[in-house]
Amino acid sequence: MRTDDIRSMYLEFFRKLRHEVVPSSPLVPSKHDPTLLFTNAGMNQFKDTFLGKEKRSYTRACSSQKCLRVSGKHNDLEQVGLTPRHHTFFEMLGNFSFGDYFKKDAIAWAWELVTSKDWFAINPDWLYATVLKDDSLGLVDDEAGKFWLEAGMPEDRIHYFDRKDNFWQMGDTGPCGPCSEIHIDRRAQLGGRLTKPLGSACDKCQFGNKMYRKCQKLKEHDLCERYSELWNLVFPQYNMEFNNPLEDLEKPGVDTGAGLERFAAVLQGVVSNYETDLFVPIIEKTEEIVGLPAGEDRFSTSFRVVADHVRALTFTIADGVAFSNEGRGYVLRRILRRALRHGRQHLQYQEPFLHLLVPAVVDIMGSTYPEIVEKAEYIQKLVKAEEEAFSATLDRGLVIFEEVLKKTKRAGLRVFPGDEAFRLYATYGFPMDMTQVMAKEAGMTVVEKTYNALMEEHRERSRALTKFEVEESLLSKLNLPPTEFVGYAT
Fold it and tell me: How far is Cα 354 from Cα 340, in angstroms, rounded to an integer?
């Protein structure tokens, strides 16, 4: 099943259930929401509706939302490339109820969409559900457990976990409630294709602690890729205030989220999201550019990083973000630099190449998101200019970094010197976050205390110099009469 068909089928399923199909909002949140750097969930555009601050003409909605998770609580940037399923940019399928239906319908419909032969037709024997049970909150979501049984989930595949795993809250105060998730056993689906870990070790399992703990109990924790979360059904039914008991909301709601990329991997029968039709054309184009042959290495860390990051660059620029040294522009710059370094250091390709991958992204997703078609040429130009500007810095920095790394290892040290990290930044313009990533790859950590102290001294000197230049400037000492412009006099 093509990813375009999966997206369309999801939205059509809920449209038939009288949901308003709402277009994705931009990756840059509304000016009225200063709490978010980027849109990171499907519910973001409905936040005021859930809070009761906004009335809409409908009480049921569904969407496929563009998301970027690169900052704050939801930050997957450093995991991208290390696992088959983490992304910066992704699409979140979701259905929402604003005081309309609640748990029973949400669970029944999710089960129908996932398992029915008329829809996604995933084998129900592969599926599990997780439900909230938390003593500190005094809550057991027996309702959700009962509704999963009624939908068709066997009791022995319904598992209860505490608030860390199965409770959602928007912040320290405000709407909150239990959540219930659908997980899939990929080993059951793919058989012998999942006989060993495909990426991170179990203690860093990308599927979170829930199913990992279950996996441990089954003494099968070496299969850290076994369980994948498919869909999270959130039930905002309480209001949380500081140090006060939870209060029932007048109108509880439903807020669900399912990663399109994960659904695509399951429905296309592949192990990794990067083997789906969303990524393969980008990876094939990367292979063509860098001159590396296709094979097992095509889904290695660096190919995954490049494919993910060029999608993020394309969509973020299309939504109005430009490269800069602060805020959203700096995040964009970090994404490009991370991808460019993987090209230089691991794919051994020295020329700017990310801009050449933008057309592949446009070909894959342009029919759904016309904004990237309209701005394709602009996106390419912006990415190319940033690549060229950073290339010289990257070349110099990589050489110095390797010299310091060898010297540090010869000395038997396991930490990268903070003063050298500062020298890389101050002298060669090499960013600290890149030094940290590279040190981590080499099994080291950067001495941040030293770096931060030197950086503060640097800032103090800069501030003092600026003040001195203003106070001591020649013009401020001269008592000159006002200047009369006579340029147009005849």
Answer: 7
